[in-house]
């Protein structure tokens, strides 16, 4: 029997919707576990990233921690996959790109309604925001893309199944959605 | 004996009449040629390049090229589809097309064409241009973020509604749609919900207010079927 492929996942500037969709594979997760073993992922809560065959990233890059995680995944994963609208084109978080970061922080933390003792949070635990939100392929090489907000559990399963068993990638019409 | 006027699209014999474009002849025969800036009731524009087909070895836009006896035309060849995919990838990064946040999602021709050519990746770097939304009109929303400059609203307003509400301003990547009113706002224009200009926007730039989510996401036109029935998708 072939050794199982190691797969790691992370959510950058996303909403964890793609990870929820991953869980939405339901009992097919058992089939997936026949083909892969999980490394770092919110599903195992493992924090360290070992060298992996496949990295699966949800969300765009909005802060310094996102950037560092993306670079680490690119370094440690043979194949890097961008999954979901935010990873592909920045998605909803990138709608802030129309505004100045200073103005956004001021609106949220200084001038917003009902704020007491208003101040812009500054703590080592909170990663600093980048000026703009960027999709993954603008920063590192991405090997595969899977659109959707989120892609359905069926779509993710089909995609991974084709990839893991060396079949040509093809999504039927009802599996290709940007919303 | 008069020769039957016919062209050949992907090997299929298609009859045409004098003064018909390749797009018109194909449409009459039930053959879909992708397009964004074309509307059968408006003068052809030839700008979106989605309808580029190969005619006797030359790449030409089907909406502006007259059908002529015996033309051998390729529409669904892999390289032509790849060019269309590239044009769509350029359009998507040029504006702010956030499908998950768009009222038109599922009814949008830009999105549906991207599905049709299986556009999976963004490929290019995003412009994230700074654009505004004009919500001044009581019945109509104009979101410049989604405008692809097809000029369908401009032509419909000028040539059908005879109101000339829209124009394009500036050049190159600064080109943008603008409203012909003293304030530049839609509220000060003569645009009305019943105008032809309100029926032709292929994207979510010009929307009627209050009705955007009457049909839920997932149950919309292109959620149900591809933009071109008959194109090979699921086999």
Describe the structure.
- The complex is a heterodimer of chains A (179) and B (235).
- Chain A is α/β, with parallel strands linked by helices and 179 residues long.
- Chain A has a single domain, classed as NADH:ubiquinone oxidoreductase-like, 20kDa subunit (Rossmann fold, 3-Layer(aba) Sandwich).
- Chain A is 31% helix and 20% strand.
- Chain A has six helices and seven strands; from the N terminus they run βααβββαβααββα.
- Chain A has helices spanning 17-23, 28-35, 64-76, 85-89, 101-110, 153-164; strands at residues 5-11, 36-38, 52-58, 61-63, 77-83, 129-134, 144-146.
- In chain A, the strands form two sheets. Chain A has a five-stranded parallel sheet, with helices on both faces. In chain A, strands 4-6 form a two-stranded antiparallel ribbon.
- In chain A, helix 2 packs parallel to helix 6 (153-164).
- The longest helix of chain A is centred in the middle third of the chain and has 13 residues, at 64-76.
- The relative contact order of chain A is 0.19.
- Chain B is an alpha+beta fold and 235 residues long.
- Chain B has helices at 22-28, 78-94, 109-116, 152-160, 221-224; strands at 6-9, 12-15, 52-55, 58-61, 72-74, 133-134, 140-143, 166-169, 176-179, 206-208.
- In chain B, the strands form three sheets. In chain B, strands 2-1-5-3-4 form a five-stranded mixed sheet, covered by helices on one side. A three-stranded antiparallel sheet of chain B has the order 6-7-10, with no helix packed on it. A two-stranded antiparallel ribbon of chain B has the order 8-9.
- In chain B, strand 1 (6-9) and strand 2 form a beta hairpin.
- The longest helix of chain B has 17 residues, at 78-94.
- Chain B starts with 5 loop residues before the first strand and ends in an 11-residue tail after the last helix.
Main attributes of the structure:
heterodimer; A: 179 residues; Rossmann fold; five-stranded parallel β-sheet; 6 helices; 31% helix; elongated; B: 235 residues; alpha+beta; Alpha-Beta Plaits; 2 domains; five-stranded mixed β-sheet
């Amino acid at each position: 029997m072939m050794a199982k492929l190691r797969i790691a996942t992370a959510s950058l500037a996303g909403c964890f919707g793609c990870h929820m969709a991953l869980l939405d594979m339901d009992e097919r997760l058992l089939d997936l576990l026949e083909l892969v073993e999980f490394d770092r992922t919110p599903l195992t809560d493992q924090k360290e990233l070992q060298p992996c065959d496949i990295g699966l990233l949800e969300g765009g890059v909005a802060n310094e921690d996102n950037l560092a995680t993306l670079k680490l995944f690119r370094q440690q994963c043979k194949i890097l996959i961008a999954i979901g609208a935010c990873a592909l084109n920045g998605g909803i978080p990138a709608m802030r790109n129309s505004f100045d970061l200073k103005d956004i922080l001021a609106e949220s933390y200084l001038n917003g309604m009902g704020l007491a003792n208003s101040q812009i949070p500054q703590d080592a635990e909170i990663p600093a925001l980048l000026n703009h939100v960027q999709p993954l392929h603008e920063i590192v090489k991405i090997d595969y893309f899977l659109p959707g907000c989120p892609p359905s559990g069926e779509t993710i399963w089909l995609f991974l199944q084709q990839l893991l068993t060396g079949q040509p990638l093809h999504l039927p019409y009802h599996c290709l959605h940007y919303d | 004996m008069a020769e039957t006027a016919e062209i050949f699209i992907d090997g299929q014999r298609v009859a045409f009449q004098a003064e018909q474009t390749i797009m018109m002849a194909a449409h009459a025969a039930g053959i879909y040629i992708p397009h964004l800036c074309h509307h059968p009731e408006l003068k052809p524009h030839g700008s979106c390049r989605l309808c580029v087909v190969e005619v006797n070895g030359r790449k030409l836009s089907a909406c502006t090229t007259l059908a002529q006896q015996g033309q051998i035309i390729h529409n669904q060849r892999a390289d032509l589809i790849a060019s269309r995919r590239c044009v769509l990838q350029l359009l998507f990064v040029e504006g702010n097309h956030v499908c998950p946040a768009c009222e038109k999602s599922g009814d949008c021709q830009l999105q549906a064409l991207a599905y049709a050519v299986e556009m999976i990746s963004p490929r290019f770097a995003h412009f994230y241009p700074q654009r505004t939304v004009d919500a001044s009109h009581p019945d109509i929303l104009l979101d410049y973020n989604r405008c692809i400059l097809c000029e369908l609203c401009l032509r419909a307003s000028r040539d059908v509604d005879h109101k000339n509400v829209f124009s394009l301003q500036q050049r190159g990547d600064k080109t943008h749609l603008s409203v012909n009113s003293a304030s530049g706002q839609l509220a000060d224009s003569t645009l009305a919900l019943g105008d032809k200009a309100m029926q032709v926007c292929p994207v979510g730039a010009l929307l009627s207010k209050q009705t955007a989510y009457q049909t839920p996401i997932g149950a919309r036109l292109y959620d149900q079927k591809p933009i071109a029935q008959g194109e090979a998708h699921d086999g």
